[in-house]
Amino acid sequence: MRRICRVFGNPIAQSKSPLIHSLFAKQFDLDLGYDKCADGITDIENAFTDFFKNEAAVGANITLPFKQRAFDFADTLSSHALRSGAVNTLFKKDGQLFGDNTDGRGLVWDFKRNGVTLKGAKVLLVGAGGAAKGCIPALFDAGISLLHISNRTTAKAKVIVDQLAANSDWNLSLFKDTETYDVIINATSLSLHGQIPSISTDILSAANVCYDMVYLDEPTAFLQHARKVGITTTIDGIGMLVGQAAESFKLWFDLSPDLTSVINTIKS
Ligand code: ATR
Questions:
Q1: I need a labelling partner for 169 at 20 to 30 A (CA). Which of 28, 36, 244, 264 fits?
Q2: Mean pLDDT value across residues 236-257
């Protein structure tokens, strides 16, 4: 039987999820129709209801700006979703709609793929949107020693710190200009506009690794800037994108696809 999945977001035209999932499905001869929601969608709750009414509907991915609303919509939540307050994957399970967040697992997988040790690392997370928040539990699960958040709107970073630190023993706080960081992660949308977040050169050049959650055909402005100040390990978000998709695919079909070939196909 043909199964169907869909990605929901707005804007959605740029999404690579249909391509990634069709490449996964091909590896297993799985008859999968994976499409995008309509462009410009706003009534996401009705769109979810309509989609999951279809018997062939297995699961959905949720991207900006609907991760919070997907969190509210799900009947049951995984610990990753609960701890991050955002959902990027929905699927039917035991007659209920289950919500998980696979972004952080995708990110951690990509650090490993790139030979970056997270255990004990001091991390600066730049940005306080859904992408930033969603990855925090997985980074602590991977053994980082501290995570500080910096954001243009400090109040938003403070909300995350207050929410997540209250229910954990994580060493999580706002950015401190007296600290140095091993790993700096850009979780803002600035790279989509060719811009870089404001981080002092002292802080940036003291890091070992710079990661940008955005993936473009060219190195992002942030990674180019990091290279200029001497950072040798700069990583873009393609691995995270494919990694989080693979985690969703596993949840839906209990199949583990090969990721490297998919990353290479997308890059080519
Ligand atoms: P996502 O869910 O993908 O994280 P988002 O919720 O829109 O998307 O968050 C985008 C992030 O990029 C936020 O941290 C945002 O900062 P604010 O919280 O201050 O809005 C950051 N961002 C976007 N445009 C920016 C800009 N021009 N300068 C600095 N930060 C910016």
A1: 244
A2: 98
Q: How far is the CA of 221 from the centre of ligand 1 (A)?
A: 16
pLDDT at 110 over 80: yes
In ligand 1, the atom with minimum distance to the C-alpha of 64 is: 2
Compute the average pLDDT of residues 89-106. Answer: 96
Of residues 11 and 57, more confidence is placed in 57
Residue nearest to atom 26 of ligand 1 (CA): 190
Sheet-wide strand order for 76-77: 32-36, 3-8, 57-62, 89-93, 96-100, 76-77
67 is catalytic: yes
Rounded to the nearest whole angstrom, what is the distance from the C-alpha of residue 127 to the centroid of ligand 1?
A: 6
As a whole number of angstroms, the distance between CA 90 and CA 85 comes to 14
CB 190 near ligand 1, within 6 Å: yes
CA gap 151, 72 in Å, rounded: 25
Mean pLDDT (the chain) is 96
Q: Which of 67, 133, 176, 228 is catalytic?
A: 67
Q: Where do the domains of the chain lie?
A: 3-102+241-255, 104-238
At 28 the pLDDT is 98
Q: Which residue's CA is the closest to the ligand 1 atom numbered 3?
A: 131
Average pLDDT over residues 30-53: 97
Contact 214, 189 (CB under 8 A): yes
Amino acid 25 reads: A
